[in-house]
Amino acid sequence: MLKNVARAYPAARRALAEIDRALVDRGVDALTVALWEDAERLGALPWTQLAALAGGLAMFEVARAHGLRADLVTGHSYGDLPALVAAGALSVADAVELTLWRCQTMGEAPAGAMAAVFAPRERVVALTQGSPGTPRRATSTRPRRSWCPARRPR
User: What is the rounded distance in angstroms from the CA atom of residue 108 to the CA atom of residue 103?
Assistant: First the structure.
């Protein structure tokens, strides 16, 4: 589907080219190689996330090229990054960098479980130290919300 959008709309092609440049600048293959020539990659990190970034930005740029202007943009979960780019609060290069970091962190997380916790990150880490399946890290998503991957105790 994204390939058809890129064929039909120069604005979508420009968005994809900007993502490709940011990836190549970081020593990573261009996303369009995965999209057009090696679709099996799309089932793995970071390609799934990068494809979501590309889809969101390409469609936003197509809408903008047609004269549509957003009063507000929003995203959920990973969709926050394309929304921040669309709002002008984050560059494409920074979104690519954050995506690569996010995927690396997800890949390093131990197999097992993830918990959403209504507590600040520091409290989660302090309360779980020394317990079976102790989280290696906790990440804050809001002031009093965190998530943490953990190994399942055996």
Answer: 9
- CA angle (120, 121, 123) in 5-degree steps: 70
pTM over the 0.70 mark: yes
Owner of token pair 């520091």: 122
Structure-block tokens of residue 45:
């990190």
Phi, psi of 51 (to 5 degrees): -65, -35
C-alpha span between 10 and 125 (Å, rounded): 48
Name residues whose C-beta falls within 8 Å of residue 105's C-beta, 6 or more positions apart in sequence: 137, 139
Give the tens place of pLDDT for each residue, 114-151. 666 777 777 777 777 776 655 556 666 666 666 666 55
Greatest mean pLDDT range, 16-25, 45-54, 97-106, 145-154 = 16-25
**Interior CA angle at 90 toward 71 and 24, to 5°?**
130
| DSSP secondary structure letter of residue 148 | E
Q: d(Cα 52, Cα 34) in Å, to the nearest integer?
A: 13
Residue whose token pair is 């131990």: 110
Q: Tell me the DSSP string of 18-74.
A: HHHHHHHHTT---HHHHHHH-GGGGGSTTHHHHHHHHHHHHHHHHHHHTT---S---
